[in-house]
Design brief:
This protein has about 375 residues and is mainly α. It has twelve helices and two strands.
Protein backbone atom coordinates (compact mmCIF):
# COMPACT_ATOMS: atom_id res chain seq x y z
CA UNK A 1 0.00 0.00 0.00
CA UNK A 2 2.85 2.37 0.86
CA UNK A 3 4.55 1.74 -2.48
CA UNK A 4 1.36 2.21 -4.50
CA UNK A 5 0.27 5.58 -3.14
CA UNK A 6 0.47 7.93 -6.11
CA UNK A 7 1.81 7.61 -9.63
CA UNK A 8 5.63 7.70 -9.69
CA UNK A 9 7.18 10.54 -11.65
CA UNK A 10 8.78 9.52 -14.96
CA UNK A 11 12.51 8.96 -15.21
CA UNK A 12 14.43 11.02 -17.71
CA UNK A 13 17.51 10.82 -19.90
CA UNK A 14 20.62 12.92 -19.52
CA UNK A 15 19.31 15.24 -22.25
CA UNK A 16 16.19 16.09 -20.24
CA UNK A 17 17.77 17.21 -16.98
CA UNK A 18 20.04 20.15 -16.14
CA UNK A 19 23.71 19.47 -16.95
CA UNK A 20 24.47 19.94 -13.26
CA UNK A 21 22.60 16.72 -12.48
CA UNK A 22 24.18 14.44 -15.08
CA UNK A 23 26.98 11.96 -14.39
CA UNK A 24 29.57 10.81 -16.90
CA UNK A 25 28.44 7.83 -19.02
CA UNK A 26 25.06 7.57 -17.19
CA UNK A 27 22.46 8.18 -19.91
CA UNK A 28 19.10 7.40 -18.26
CA UNK A 29 17.31 6.81 -14.98
CA UNK A 30 17.47 10.43 -13.84
CA UNK A 31 14.94 11.98 -11.49
CA UNK A 32 13.98 15.55 -12.37
CA UNK A 33 15.35 17.95 -9.73
CA UNK A 34 11.96 19.03 -8.41
CA UNK A 35 10.85 15.97 -6.41
CA UNK A 36 8.98 16.37 -3.15
CA UNK A 37 10.31 14.72 0.01
CA UNK A 38 7.68 12.00 -0.37
CA UNK A 39 8.68 11.37 -4.00
CA UNK A 40 12.32 11.06 -2.97
CA UNK A 41 11.54 8.56 -0.23
CA UNK A 42 9.41 6.47 -2.57
CA UNK A 43 12.16 6.48 -5.19
CA UNK A 44 14.24 4.26 -2.88
CA UNK A 45 11.92 1.41 -3.93
CA UNK A 46 12.00 1.94 -7.68
CA UNK A 47 14.95 1.51 -10.08
CA UNK A 48 16.66 4.83 -10.71
CA UNK A 49 20.33 5.64 -11.19
CA UNK A 50 20.50 6.57 -7.48
CA UNK A 51 18.70 3.55 -5.98
CA UNK A 52 21.83 1.41 -5.76
CA UNK A 53 23.81 4.33 -4.39
CA UNK A 54 21.28 4.67 -1.57
CA UNK A 55 21.06 1.02 -0.54
CA UNK A 56 24.81 0.32 -0.76
CA UNK A 57 25.39 2.76 2.11
CA UNK A 58 22.08 2.49 3.98
CA UNK A 59 22.09 -1.27 4.59
CA UNK A 60 25.75 -1.26 5.77
CA UNK A 61 24.69 0.91 8.73
CA UNK A 62 23.05 -2.14 10.30
CA UNK A 63 25.91 -4.47 9.38
CA UNK A 64 28.43 -2.11 10.95
CA UNK A 65 26.31 -1.69 14.09
CA UNK A 66 26.06 -5.48 14.48
CA UNK A 67 29.84 -6.00 14.45
CA UNK A 68 30.47 -2.90 16.54
CA UNK A 69 28.13 -3.89 19.38
CA UNK A 70 29.66 -7.37 19.66
CA UNK A 71 32.65 -5.78 21.36
CA UNK A 72 30.74 -4.91 24.52
CA UNK A 73 29.97 -8.59 25.22
CA UNK A 74 33.66 -9.57 25.43
CA UNK A 75 34.94 -11.01 28.68
CA UNK A 76 36.60 -8.34 30.77
CA UNK A 77 35.18 -5.45 28.75
CA UNK A 78 34.11 -2.45 30.86
CA UNK A 79 30.63 -0.99 30.62
CA UNK A 80 29.71 0.55 27.28
CA UNK A 81 29.65 4.03 28.84
CA UNK A 82 33.08 3.67 30.46
CA UNK A 83 35.77 6.22 29.48
CA UNK A 84 37.75 3.41 27.88
CA UNK A 85 35.16 3.21 25.09
CA UNK A 86 34.82 6.97 24.46
CA UNK A 87 37.08 6.81 21.37
CA UNK A 88 35.13 3.83 20.00
CA UNK A 89 31.82 5.66 20.34
CA UNK A 90 33.28 8.66 18.52
CA UNK A 91 34.45 6.29 15.80
CA UNK A 92 30.94 4.82 15.65
CA UNK A 93 29.43 8.30 15.37
CA UNK A 94 31.80 9.12 12.50
CA UNK A 95 30.98 5.96 10.55
CA UNK A 96 27.24 6.19 11.26
CA UNK A 97 27.06 9.81 10.09
CA UNK A 98 29.13 9.00 7.01
CA UNK A 99 26.92 6.11 5.87
CA UNK A 100 23.66 7.87 6.74
CA UNK A 101 24.61 11.19 5.12
CA UNK A 102 25.86 9.46 1.98
CA UNK A 103 22.71 7.37 1.56
CA UNK A 104 20.43 10.35 2.27
CA UNK A 105 22.39 12.56 -0.13
CA UNK A 106 21.76 10.12 -2.96
CA UNK A 107 18.11 9.71 -2.00
CA UNK A 108 17.15 13.36 -1.47
CA UNK A 109 19.32 15.22 -3.98
CA UNK A 110 16.54 15.51 -6.60
CA UNK A 111 14.43 17.93 -4.55
CA UNK A 112 16.17 20.92 -6.13
CA UNK A 113 19.59 21.98 -7.34
CA UNK A 114 20.16 23.84 -4.08
CA UNK A 115 19.21 20.81 -1.98
CA UNK A 116 21.45 18.67 -4.18
CA UNK A 117 24.42 20.88 -3.41
CA UNK A 118 23.68 20.95 0.32
CA UNK A 119 23.27 17.15 0.43
CA UNK A 120 26.73 16.55 -0.97
CA UNK A 121 28.30 19.30 1.13
CA UNK A 122 27.02 17.41 4.18
CA UNK A 123 28.31 14.17 2.66
CA UNK A 124 31.83 15.60 2.38
CA UNK A 125 31.62 16.95 5.92
CA UNK A 126 30.75 13.57 7.38
CA UNK A 127 33.63 11.93 5.52
CA UNK A 128 36.00 14.34 7.24
CA UNK A 129 34.34 13.74 10.60
CA UNK A 130 34.76 10.00 10.06
CA UNK A 131 38.51 10.41 9.46
CA UNK A 132 38.85 12.24 12.79
CA UNK A 133 36.76 9.58 14.53
CA UNK A 134 39.16 6.99 13.13
CA UNK A 135 42.11 9.06 14.31
CA UNK A 136 40.74 9.14 17.86
CA UNK A 137 40.42 5.35 17.85
CA UNK A 138 43.92 4.99 16.42
CA UNK A 139 45.35 7.38 18.99
CA UNK A 140 43.95 5.57 22.02
CA UNK A 141 44.14 1.96 20.83
CA UNK A 142 46.95 1.82 18.22
CA UNK A 143 49.11 4.63 19.56
CA UNK A 144 52.82 3.64 19.74
CA UNK A 145 52.53 3.51 23.53
CA UNK A 146 49.14 1.78 23.69
CA UNK A 147 49.56 -1.45 25.61
CA UNK A 148 52.94 -0.41 27.03
CA UNK A 149 53.45 0.21 30.71
CA UNK A 150 56.83 1.04 32.14
CA UNK A 151 57.80 -0.33 35.52
CA UNK A 152 60.70 0.62 37.74
CA UNK A 153 63.12 -1.93 39.15
CA UNK A 154 64.75 -1.62 42.55
CA UNK A 155 67.49 0.62 41.10
CA UNK A 156 64.94 3.07 39.70
CA UNK A 157 65.55 2.29 36.05
CA UNK A 158 62.60 1.75 33.70
CA UNK A 159 61.91 -1.70 32.37
CA UNK A 160 59.66 -2.45 29.42
CA UNK A 161 57.19 -5.25 30.10
CA UNK A 162 58.39 -7.01 26.96
CA UNK A 163 61.67 -8.53 25.92
CA UNK A 164 63.32 -6.96 22.90
CA UNK A 165 63.35 -9.03 19.74
CA UNK A 166 65.92 -8.61 17.03
CA UNK A 167 64.82 -7.32 13.67
CA UNK A 168 62.16 -4.96 15.03
CA UNK A 169 62.22 -1.34 16.09
CA UNK A 170 61.62 -0.63 19.73
CA UNK A 171 58.58 1.58 20.47
CA UNK A 172 60.97 3.82 22.39
CA UNK A 173 63.60 3.89 19.63
CA UNK A 174 62.28 6.99 17.85
CA UNK A 175 61.30 9.66 20.38
CA UNK A 176 60.51 12.14 17.60
CA UNK A 177 57.64 9.91 16.50
CA UNK A 178 56.34 9.73 20.05
CA UNK A 179 56.47 13.53 20.18
CA UNK A 180 54.45 13.75 16.97
CA UNK A 181 51.82 11.28 18.15
CA UNK A 182 51.39 12.77 21.59
CA UNK A 183 51.47 16.45 20.58
CA UNK A 184 50.62 16.99 16.92
CA UNK A 185 48.77 13.90 15.70
CA UNK A 186 45.18 14.87 16.61
CA UNK A 187 45.56 18.58 15.70
CA UNK A 188 46.96 17.54 12.31
CA UNK A 189 44.07 15.13 11.77
CA UNK A 190 41.54 17.90 12.48
CA UNK A 191 43.27 20.47 10.27
CA UNK A 192 43.54 18.01 7.37
CA UNK A 193 39.85 17.13 7.78
CA UNK A 194 38.87 20.80 7.49
CA UNK A 195 41.08 21.24 4.40
CA UNK A 196 39.35 18.22 2.83
CA UNK A 197 35.89 19.68 3.40
CA UNK A 198 36.91 22.99 1.88
CA UNK A 199 38.52 21.34 -1.14
CA UNK A 200 35.67 18.92 -1.87
CA UNK A 201 32.99 21.58 -1.49
CA UNK A 202 34.96 23.76 -3.89
CA UNK A 203 34.88 21.03 -6.54
CA UNK A 204 31.11 21.54 -6.78
CA UNK A 205 31.62 25.18 -7.73
CA UNK A 206 35.08 25.10 -9.34
CA UNK A 207 37.42 22.54 -10.89
CA UNK A 208 34.37 20.60 -12.13
CA UNK A 209 36.26 18.88 -14.93
CA UNK A 210 38.65 17.12 -12.56
CA UNK A 211 36.32 16.80 -9.56
CA UNK A 212 36.56 13.01 -9.16
CA UNK A 213 40.34 12.99 -9.22
CA UNK A 214 40.56 15.93 -6.81
CA UNK A 215 38.10 14.43 -4.33
CA UNK A 216 39.86 11.07 -4.38
CA UNK A 217 43.34 12.54 -3.94
CA UNK A 218 42.17 14.97 -1.26
CA UNK A 219 40.99 12.10 0.93
CA UNK A 220 44.24 10.23 0.40
CA UNK A 221 45.98 12.81 2.62
CA UNK A 222 43.89 12.19 5.77
CA UNK A 223 44.36 8.45 5.26
CA UNK A 224 48.14 8.89 5.29
CA UNK A 225 48.07 11.18 8.34
CA UNK A 226 45.50 9.20 10.33
CA UNK A 227 47.21 5.88 9.63
CA UNK A 228 50.63 6.91 10.95
CA UNK A 229 50.07 5.05 14.26
CA UNK A 230 49.27 1.92 12.25
CA UNK A 231 52.35 2.36 10.04
CA UNK A 232 54.42 2.72 13.21
CA UNK A 233 52.97 -0.39 14.82
CA UNK A 234 53.47 -2.43 11.64
CA UNK A 235 57.14 -1.41 11.53
CA UNK A 236 57.82 -1.93 15.23
CA UNK A 237 57.76 -5.02 17.37
CA UNK A 238 54.56 -5.81 19.23
CA UNK A 239 54.31 -4.08 22.61
CA UNK A 240 53.05 -7.35 24.08
CA UNK A 241 55.07 -10.35 25.15
CA UNK A 242 54.78 -13.23 22.70
CA UNK A 243 53.53 -15.50 25.48
CA UNK A 244 50.52 -13.35 26.38
CA UNK A 245 46.95 -13.49 25.03
CA UNK A 246 47.34 -9.82 24.12
CA UNK A 247 50.01 -10.69 21.55
CA UNK A 248 47.76 -13.33 19.96
CA UNK A 249 44.91 -10.80 19.76
CA UNK A 250 46.97 -7.99 18.25
CA UNK A 251 48.86 -10.14 15.73
CA UNK A 252 45.89 -9.98 13.34
CA UNK A 253 45.93 -6.18 13.18
CA UNK A 254 48.36 -5.81 10.22
CA UNK A 255 46.31 -8.14 8.00
CA UNK A 256 43.16 -6.16 8.63
CA UNK A 257 45.05 -2.95 7.85
CA UNK A 258 46.37 -4.32 4.55
CA UNK A 259 42.85 -5.32 3.53
CA UNK A 260 41.51 -1.95 4.66
CA UNK A 261 44.08 -0.22 2.45
CA UNK A 262 43.39 -2.53 -0.49
CA UNK A 263 39.65 -1.82 -0.42
CA UNK A 264 40.36 1.92 -0.25
CA UNK A 265 42.63 1.65 -3.29
CA UNK A 266 40.03 -0.30 -5.27
CA UNK A 267 37.30 2.18 -4.32
CA UNK A 268 39.51 5.05 -5.50
CA UNK A 269 40.08 3.31 -8.83
CA UNK A 270 36.33 2.89 -9.34
CA UNK A 271 35.69 6.52 -8.44
CA UNK A 272 38.29 7.88 -10.85
CA UNK A 273 37.99 5.44 -13.76
CA UNK A 274 34.15 5.36 -14.00
CA UNK A 275 34.44 1.68 -14.83
CA UNK A 276 32.39 -0.22 -16.05
CA UNK A 277 29.96 2.40 -17.45
CA UNK A 278 32.81 4.01 -19.38
CA UNK A 279 33.06 0.84 -21.50
CA UNK A 280 29.33 0.67 -22.26
CA UNK A 281 27.56 4.01 -21.68
CA UNK A 282 23.90 3.43 -20.87
CA UNK A 283 24.21 -0.24 -19.97
CA UNK A 284 24.95 0.30 -16.27
CA UNK A 285 22.67 3.28 -15.69
CA UNK A 286 20.62 1.59 -12.96
CA UNK A 287 22.69 -1.26 -11.53
CA UNK A 288 26.41 -1.95 -11.49
CA UNK A 289 27.87 1.47 -12.23
CA UNK A 290 31.10 2.63 -10.64
CA UNK A 291 29.65 4.65 -7.78
CA UNK A 292 27.83 1.61 -6.44
CA UNK A 293 31.06 -0.41 -6.51
CA UNK A 294 32.80 2.58 -4.90
CA UNK A 295 30.29 2.46 -2.05
CA UNK A 296 30.68 -1.30 -1.59
CA UNK A 297 34.47 -1.14 -1.49
CA UNK A 298 34.40 1.84 0.86
CA UNK A 299 32.22 -0.04 3.32
CA UNK A 300 34.40 -3.15 3.14
CA UNK A 301 37.40 -0.96 3.99
CA UNK A 302 35.50 0.46 6.98
CA UNK A 303 34.55 -3.03 8.15
CA UNK A 304 38.18 -4.20 8.02
CA UNK A 305 39.19 -1.01 9.82
CA UNK A 306 36.68 -1.84 12.56
CA UNK A 307 38.12 -5.35 12.92
CA UNK A 308 41.63 -3.86 13.02
CA UNK A 309 40.73 -1.47 15.85
CA UNK A 310 38.84 -4.18 17.71
CA UNK A 311 41.91 -6.44 17.57
CA UNK A 312 43.89 -3.77 19.41
CA UNK A 313 41.06 -3.10 21.85
CA UNK A 314 40.91 -6.80 22.73
CA UNK A 315 44.71 -6.88 23.16
CA UNK A 316 44.58 -3.98 25.60
CA UNK A 317 41.71 -5.56 27.53
CA UNK A 318 43.67 -8.80 27.82
CA UNK A 319 46.81 -7.01 28.98
CA UNK A 320 47.36 -7.64 32.71
CA UNK A 321 49.07 -4.22 32.91
CA UNK A 322 45.86 -2.52 31.81
CA UNK A 323 46.81 0.79 30.22
CA UNK A 324 43.49 2.59 29.94
CA UNK A 325 42.14 4.34 31.95
CA UNK A 326 45.40 6.12 32.82
CA UNK A 327 47.69 4.86 35.55
CA UNK A 328 50.62 6.49 37.27
CA UNK A 329 52.96 4.36 35.15
CA UNK A 330 51.35 5.22 31.83
CA UNK A 331 52.82 7.74 29.40
CA UNK A 332 49.61 7.82 27.33
CA UNK A 333 46.71 9.62 29.06
CA UNK A 334 43.36 7.90 29.02
CA UNK A 335 40.38 9.22 27.05
CA UNK A 336 38.23 11.95 28.54
CA UNK A 337 35.02 13.61 27.39
CA UNK A 338 36.97 16.71 26.38
CA UNK A 339 39.64 14.80 24.42
CA UNK A 340 37.10 12.69 22.49
CA UNK A 341 33.56 14.09 22.33
CA UNK A 342 34.90 17.61 22.78
CA UNK A 343 37.25 17.26 19.80
CA UNK A 344 34.46 15.88 17.62
CA UNK A 345 32.04 18.61 18.71
CA UNK A 346 34.55 21.35 17.90
CA UNK A 347 35.27 19.76 14.51
CA UNK A 348 31.60 19.32 13.68
CA UNK A 349 30.88 22.93 14.58
CA UNK A 350 33.62 24.07 12.21
CA UNK A 351 32.38 21.77 9.43
CA UNK A 352 28.78 22.95 9.84
CA UNK A 353 29.99 26.56 9.49
CA UNK A 354 31.83 25.67 6.27
CA UNK A 355 28.79 23.85 4.89
CA UNK A 356 26.56 26.82 5.75
CA UNK A 357 28.82 29.19 3.79
CA UNK A 358 28.93 26.98 0.72
CA UNK A 359 25.17 26.36 0.94
CA UNK A 360 24.49 30.09 1.00
CA UNK A 361 26.64 30.52 -2.08
CA UNK A 362 24.85 27.63 -3.82
CA UNK A 363 21.50 29.23 -3.04
CA UNK A 364 22.67 32.47 -4.62
CA UNK A 365 23.59 30.55 -7.78
CA UNK A 366 20.70 28.07 -8.12
CA UNK A 367 17.96 29.75 -6.09
CA UNK A 368 16.71 31.89 -9.00
CA UNK A 369 16.57 28.80 -11.25
CA UNK A 370 14.53 26.96 -8.61
CA UNK A 371 12.08 29.84 -8.25
CA UNK A 372 11.69 30.14 -12.02
CA UNK A 373 11.00 26.42 -12.30
CA UNK A 374 8.28 26.65 -9.65
CA UNK A 375 6.62 29.51 -11.54
CA UNK A 376 6.64 27.50 -14.77
CA UNK A 377 5.05 24.53 -13.02
CA UNK A 378 2.26 26.74 -11.66
CA UNK A 379 1.59 28.14 -15.14
CA UNK A 380 1.50 24.64 -16.65
Amino acid sequence: MFLNCGQPLPLLSDKDVPPRVTENFILSGYRFPNYSLRDCLLSAFRPTNETGNFWTHFLPIFIFAYYFLQMFSWDGAPDADAPFFYPMWNYFIGVFCLLLASSMAHLLNSMSLVVREVCFFVDYGTISAYTVGSSLAYYYYIHPRAGIVEKEDKNGSCLDINHKRKGFLSPNAMPEFNLFFETYYMPCACVIAIICVLSCCNTRQRWREHRYIIRTLVFLLPFLISSTPVFYRVLTRSPYSTTTPSFAASITMPNFFYRHSLWLLVSALFNISKFPERLAPGRFDIWGHSHQWFHCCTFLSILDELHMIQAEVRAILLNPDFLLPPTALSRLPGPTIASTYGVMLLLQTTIVSIIACFSWHANCIYGPQRDQLKKQMKID
